[in-house]
Batch of 2 targets.
Target 1
Amino acid sequence: MPLRRLFFINANKTKYVSVGFYPARDYLPLVEFGVTRSCGSKSIILTDEQVYTLAQCLPTIADAMCKEGEEVTPVIKCKSVNFRLRMPRSRRGLTRLYLGTEYKCLTPMDLHYFARMFNIVHQQLCDYVLALPDSL
């Protein structure tokens, strides 16, 4: 069984981030964002380049969401190939992670938690990328 790490983003454990080797994609180390629902689960899978882009943008986004007295968040561009992060117009809105036409929504609380723990996800992916030659 390939190695995989799972991190839950919200308290009710319906949103998660998983880092691991994906057999269906030539055992490449990738990051999966998923949502589990009663009608089935949906996920998007990001490459290391897309995860790096997100790691660069996330601290700025979290800081912008925390600014007091500003209802409208500044425009922050976070884009890599067919991946992008869309910020809400207000701090109470939903942030969307897009991969092509698929997307996952993050509430402000999810986003704050995700921003604090994403360095662990990013580091885990970097470790998997370094271990890739040994796993083949």
Target 2
Amino acid sequence: MLMHRNATKRESRTVIVLVLILLINLFVSGAALANWSANDDANDNPDGLVWWFAPDSIQHQTWWWDANQANAMDQLLDWHMRWPVDVQFWFNNQPDRNYVHEVRTDHNVYEAENWYWTDLPVPDHNEDDTWAEEQQQGAEEKELGWATPSVQIPGGVERMIYTGYTSWNCDCNAYFMTESELTQPSPWGGDWLPERWDELGRTEIQGSH
């Protein structure tokens, strides 16, 4: 019985070691095929605007994660997003307004995915443009929105948002523009009609995959 227990423990350790080796191999191979390739440091606050509902453009930073393989999802990280300390007070003064985090990119190069990750509360709105909208405006737009920003958007602390994009594998140059929007109810239904907006940064992409 003792020998059986020892054999079982050895088998368990062997399985654990094999799993760890597999995970390390996946991490190393993934790191070899992807890298943080570009950011918006040279192009903060492209529109020169500073609106109260937007995080500080200079504090904010965007990084592009390039997964260099066919059909892999690239990611855009918006982080160091810090709103004014009194932002909830101002949102509370306009209770019918919502907040949207929008990313625009070249629709001939990228298609936005439904995937996202954020340490903000779960968004109430997750949308990207239809094919017809992309053709009409000449860009792909990815939107995440919060319906009660007076309690969902914190003031004076940093937050981050990841969004995902699949490239058309054209090895093209492109861009990502990150924007904050103050939105309001639409007369045609829905609550995400932009009223004011503030561009936080533009990231230039050299050779997407």
